[in-house]
Each structure stands twice: as C-alpha cells, then as structure tokens.
Amino acid sequence: MFSKFNNRNISKLYMQRHGWVKPEFELRDDVYSYGKLTFKTVSIKHAGTATLADGLLNFKLEGFWQKRVSVVDGNDVLVGKLKIKAFSSTAEFILADGTIFYLKRSSFWKARYTWRSDAHGPLLHIHCHAFTKTDEVFIEQSTAPLAWVPLLSFVGFYLIITKQRQAAAAGV
User: Fold this and answer.
1) Tell me: the pLDDT tens digits for 57-74?
2) Calpha distance 18→37 (Å, rounded)
3) Is residue 1 part of a domain?
4) Whole-angstrom Cα distance, residue 73 to residue 60?
5) How many other CB atoms are found less than 10 A from the CB of residue 81?
6) Is residue 3 one of the residues assigned to a domain?
7) If we measure between CA atoms, which residue out of 70, 38, 39 comes closest to residue 52?
8) Residue 104 domain-assigned?
9) Domain that holds residue 110
10) Is the separation of the CB atoms in 125 and 112 below 8 Å?
11) How many folded domains does the chain comprise?
12) How many angstroms separate the CA atoms of 57 and 69, rounded?
C-alpha cells in the first residue's frame, strides 16, 4: 500500500489532508505515497498513529501535564521521545539510540518549521499553509539516513497538528 522512502533525489514531499470529520494525513510525492497519519477521534491524550511501508508508529502523550510524547513502533518498542519545551519554539526528539533532533519554528509570522541535528545540520523544512489541504516538506540533501525523512516528517506533523488542535480547543 505504501512505498518505502529510498530515493535521495526527491527534494519535496507533501502532507495532504483527506476528509474533514475524521481526517487522515498522507505523506506523498508526485508519484508514491509513503504513509498516513491518523488520530483517535476522541482522545484527551492526543493518540495518533502513523502507518508506513515498514510498520506503525504510535504517538502517546505521557501524563496529563507533561509535555513529552513517546513514539513506539507496532510492537511497543520505543523509537524515540519527543520533549516539548515550555515557552519555547523548539522541541527535542531523542531516538532510542541517543540521536537528538531539534524541531524549531523558523518563522514567527508563518507556520514554518525546521528539523535539524547537531551531526547533520538542517534535515527538513516543513511549510504549513493556511486554508489548504496540502503542506510541504522540503528535504535537505545530506548524508543523513533516508529512514529519518518519513520518521521526522510524521513526528513533526503530529506535533504541529496536536498544537493546532489544542489552540482551537482553547479558543485561541
């Protein structure tokens, strides 16, 4: 159903929303689909699932007041932990092997985010557009493993969509 991301020549992906009542978010390029992100319909803990070609990623909020999200695969093996810093535009994603990535909002006025790591520099740029069904992911050409592209894309969009839903629920 989904293709494995294994082409370094791709520089742009799209996250496309399907549906309004129970939306699914599909990561794709012009030819292939690489996975989808879904959320539980009614969930205080913002449970989400990303389905990829090689398995599942489940997003689970830890505790009610903590700003941490565990990312586990379909067998409940920890993939990484997402830490959301309070009063900051930066989130930290730590893989189980200790690799650290930072998601930073790169524009105050526009919904633009950048994934970066200390070892590889900028990896992805996410541009979210208001009032559209399609957002863009720009991939930096680097020596980073290709498996990180869909992983970081889904973790980034999980965080962005969750924050949008929390702001809408708060009436902001």
Assistant:
1) 999 888 666 689 999 999
2) 10
3) no
4) 11
5) 16
6) no
7) 38
8) yes
9) 12-167
10) yes
11) 1
12) 12
